[in-house]
Amino acid sequence: MRIGLIGYGGVGKAFTKLIVDKSSMLKEEGLNIEIVYIINSKGGVYNPKGIGYNKLLAFSNGGKSIIEDYDENKKITPDFMLERKDIDLMIELTSTNKETGEPALSYILKALENKIHVVTGNKGPIIQRYKKLEKMAGENGVHLGIGCTCGGALPSVNGGVIEMAGSEISSIEGVFNGTTNYILKEMEDTGCTYDIALKKAKDFGISEANPSFDVEGWDTAFKLLILTNVIMKEEKNLSDIKVEGITNLTPYDIENALKEGKRYKLIGRTSRVEKELNMLVKLEKVDKEHPFYNVDGKNKAVRYISDTLGELTLIGGASGTTAATASILRDIIYISRVARV
Amino acid sequence: MRIGLIGYGGVGKAFTKLIVDKSSMLKEEGLNIEIVYIINSKGGVYNPKGIGYNKLLAFSNGGKSIIEDYDENKKITPDFMLERKDIDLMIELTSTNKETGEPALSYILKALENKIHVVTGNKGPIIQRYKKLEKMAGENGVHLGIGCTCGGALPSVNGGVIEMAGSEISSIEGVFNGTTNYILKEMEDTGCTYDIALKKAKDFGISEANPSFDVEGWDTAFKLLILTNVIMKEEKNLSDIKVEGITNLTPYDIENALKEGKRYKLIGRTSRVEKELNMLVKLEKVDKEHPFYNVDGKNKAVRYISDTLGELTLIGGASGTTAATASILRDIIYISRVARV
């Protein structure tokens, strides 16, 4: 399988390392991965015969910016790659724009049009145009892998699309955000205020410098939106979700919940009531009988409720770059099995 | 997709009903199922153009034994079907023989040899000869769906094969048996003895007339064996598993566990320690932080631990004929997607 990788940050670099580490497993799987392009915003590497693993590793580990390495005097860009079309699959890991989905959206569309499979970890284009992308993939007989956009290692998309196949899903709910999980656990364990727990999350690098995206519930909302549109085949927008964060939670609230034997979780939920779809992100108290009771720290979870296959809860999804990368590889293996690339 | 169904008990009958109930969903999926054969031990129905849904429903609901309905004067048997080879997929639901896997094993082998996909709910052949069957499927470019053999609606096989793809799994553990789950919960809730709880399970039709298979841990062991051989690519036998049941548990044990905030679960576990594989079925006490704490009654669960994708716990899997049937349909949909039948 000939792969072009665009976007070469932490996950991209970890991917090139992962396929070296996993080379014997990939061989057993019958999957021969050749990375033909690595492209970032500064330039790219291209070797039509496959970029050597040693060179890959040097790039991955050395932290050097990518150099151009192609005999013609051309800049290696995504457009260059998508014009040559000499790959089977594009890994798209460029930076996210959730308003427009660009430039990833255009790259993905162009790849699919050219019968190139795509695996992406980018929420932007999926939020903006999933239905169009999926249609384009179907018309061109290729696949679009999006597992990494919704919880990384937690197979939340597959959980709905593959594991609940043939059933009608009436509810999707989950604990999708690691930062809020960390903050809530810290408040429970130490009795501290929200601000102190947030500071700790920042100090430990768990929270981003600007945490509002996580703590105000938007990250959860985006993941819920993707799962809803993909699994329930809807075309909802962010404005269809009632979003609430965790910023107003007090130690007093936490203490009262613990007295009741309950824990707060930031839950995203889409439920079908009659013909209406109800979508919200909300702090809820759950007791020890609830499947999300133990979902804290780095764990995430999703629960589906269906007609014929009953309920299914998936809990897990290690955090971090390795896990995100491994979820990209999971999608690639799936595509190689189904499309026999 | 032309389907031949052999074994026409509860699940087989429910299947013919399910595909009528799900006809609009199947159409959306692009999956056109025609049932061409229905065969049981007494005879069979065959219509090369597809057995009409009304006739199917009459058979399913009417409880009539299957009649022969073919213009030539031949008995409709699995061998007859496998000689004509005019199907894409065989659903194999004949009765289980765990010692030999027969006659299902021969039917499945013959189908795969003839490039016919197979979906089975039958543990016997999978326990006996999975590796050979899988190899045969691979060589003939067809698929073998076995989701129904390990927990029905709980996607335990897919959980390992698809959702952990690309990672190395060091541990498989699960709560796989409904009857023991019911008995343990009854003992916890009422403080009754094992014998009283077992009687209740029999009275409610939860336990089989001969419950030893469940309560002595063998059903759990069989499922663990299948998951281990399929997901870890091993060739283990039942004799490799140290099996312990729940028959010696006393109300005193239960009471003590509850005092510690713990619950007993019958857990099957395969774990890799260095190069050794350790397999056991054992009653264990779990506390409320354990992912299996809430797995009781009809629920089942499985947890995988891996190198790159972390931990994944799947909880769910409604019991009963509908759920088992829906898990057969899930495998068929998967095959139709990957093989484009």
Automatic annotation (TrEMBL), chains A, B:
Keywords: Amino-acid biosynthesis, Methionine biosynthesis, NADP, Oxidoreductase, Sodium, Threonine biosynthesis. GO terms for molecular function: homoserine dehydrogenase activity; NADP binding. The keyword Oxidoreductase applies. NADPH binds at residue 123. InterPro entries: Asp/hSer_DH_NAD-bd, HDH_cat, HDH_CS, HDH_short, NAD(P)-bd_dom_sf. Its EC number is 1.1.1.3. Residues 7-144 form the Aspartate/homoserine dehydrogenase NAD-binding domain. L-homoserine binds at residue 208. Pathway: Amino-acid biosynthesis; L-methionine biosynthesis via de novo pathway; L-homoserine from L-aspartate: step 3/3; Amino-acid biosynthesis; L-threonine biosynthesis; L-threonine from L-aspartate: step 3/5. The active site is at 223 (proton donor). Residues 164-333 form the Homoserine dehydrogenase catalytic domain. NADP(+) binds at residues 7-12. GO terms for biological process: methionine biosynthetic process; threonine biosynthetic process. It holds the Pfam family Homoserine_dh. It catalyses: L-homoserine + NADP(+) = L-aspartate 4-semialdehyde + NADPH + H(+). PROSITE patterns: HOMOSER_DHGENASE. PANTHER family: HOMOSERINE DEHYDROGENASE. Belongs to the homoserine dehydrogenase family. This is Homoserine dehydrogenase. The lineage of its organism: Bacteria, Bacillati, Bacillota, Clostridia, Eubacteriales.
